[in-house]
Structure formats: structure tokens, C-alpha cells
Amino acid sequence: MHPAEEGSFATSDARAVVVVGNYAYVADYGHGLRIIDVQDPAHPREVGSYDTPGLAQGVAIACPTVSPTRLCFAYIADWDRGLRVINVSSPAHPSDAGYYDTLGLAYGVTVLGDYAYLADGSEGLLILRFTGLTPTPTPTATPTSTPTWTPTPTATQTGTSTSAITATPTSTVTETSIPTPTGTITEADTPTPTATQTSVVVETSSPTPTGTVTETDTPTPTATPTATAMARPVHLPLILRNP
Fold first, then answer.
1. Helix (H, G, I), strand (E, B) or coil at 133
2. First-residue to last-residue Cα distance in the chain
3. Which of 20, 60, 89, 118 could bridge 75 with an S-S bond, Cβ 3.0-4.6 Å?
4. Is 54 in contact with 79 (CB distance < 8 Å)?
């Protein structure tokens, strides 16, 4: 294989470099962090920089997934000023995000998960756990439907049958023979009661409750996570030598 130069960018005193996406992050010793756009390798250009207080020796980049904003941080091994953390979510506007002053001289750094592994000269390997990137859930109300039963009275008809007896006069003819000199027959009317039944229906209304179901909205709180980014400097408080 025969590598050939494709492009270059002059810095002051480059000591380490990491490339993530279209950007190269350079630890530039006395000039801190330099951010170079290398999308076109033949024409790299600087888009941002951050001058650290020490001498930048090593660099690592981590972009933890924090909804809804994707944050990226540069971790600088800054010689006698320990570990410096730079927010590079906007490469053109890097800003200070935190630091940890070590006892030795920081030469190099690697970040994996929630831990930074720092080569600290005579102090050996330091393992630092950093915090401040955990999203905080915020409860919000979401309406849900809850059915409720409301009784509604309605009228129904029920039939009640009663019987009444009425007397209707009828006529019957009874013949009696009375001997008279003229021999005539007389008729006498005698009323004879007979019974007939008639039905009378009496309708009464009695309310019978029936139910109707209506839905009402009752807000039920649900948790929706939101990201809380640390705007103030975040100290890295814990040193783990034997995690």
C-alpha cells in the first residue's frame, strides 16, 4: 500500500486527533481544542476552537443519546489542569461543560459509557464517572374516557282487567187460563234478571328506569421524559481505581 497525501491543515502543535462524522477534533497543546471540518479531505477548514487553561495532550469524543437533543462532548487531557469537558454539540460554538483537576499530569483520555479513563502520569490510570446527562421525566396530563351510568325514567303501559256485572231486564210471557164467562186470555209481564259480563280495561302508567351511558373525560397523568442538559460546569466527583 502506498498512502498519498490528500489534504492538510496547519495547527500550532497537534498532539492527538479524533474524527467523528465530518469533524476532526485536535488536541493542539497550548491552543486547546481545534475543530476541523474534513467533509472534503482535500480542503479541510477550521469551524471552531476552545482554548483550554492547560496544555491539551489528548482528546476523546462522546455523544450520549439524550432525547430530544443529541449532545456531544470533547474530553481533553489537559496536562497539569487535569480533565476538561467541552460541549461540542455545535462545532462552531464549543463551550465549557465541566472539569476535574487531577493530582498528576494528564496525557491521554478515553471515554466509554459513563466513564472517562485518564492517563495521569505518575498517578497512573484514573477512572472518572461523570453525571448530569440523565433525562428528567416530566408528568403531563393525558385525557382518557371513563364511562358513567345515568338512569333515565321512561313510561311503560301495563293493562289491568276488571269485571263488572250489570242487570238487563228481559220480558217473558206466562200464559194463565182463568175461566171467565167470555173465555178470554190475559198476558202478564214478569221481569226476570239475567247476568251479563262486561270487561273494563284500566290502564295505569308506572315509570320503569332505564339506563343511558355517557362518557366523561378524566385526565390521567402520564410521564413524558424530557432532557435536562447541564448548563453550569459539571464537576466529575468520583474517582474509581478498582471499578
1. coil
2. 42
3. 60
4. yes
Estimate to the nearest angstrom the gap between the alpha carbon of 118 and the chain centroid. Answer: 39
3-state secondary structure of 190: strand
pLDDT tens string, the chain, 243 residues long: the values are 899 999 999 999 999 999 999 999 999 999 999 999 999 999 999 999 999 999 999 999 999 876 577 889 999 999 999 999 999 999 999 999 999 999 999 999 999 988 999 999 999 999 999 876 554 444 555 555 555 555 555 555 545 444 444 444 444 444 444 444 444 444 445 454 444 444 444 454 445 455 554 555 555 444 444 333 343 344 444 444 344
DSSP label at residue 39: S
- Residue (of 120, 83, 60, 115) closest to 240 by Cα position: 115
Q: Which residues contact 98 (CB under 8 A, 6 or more apart)?
A: 84, 85, 130, 132, 230, 233, 234, 235, 236
What would you measure as the largest C-alpha separation in the chain, in angstroms?
Answer: 174
CA distance readout (Å), 225 to 67, 70, 156, 228: 8, 14, 56, 10
State the pTM of this model.
0.57
* Domains (range + CATH), the chain: 16-139+226-239 (2.130.10.10)
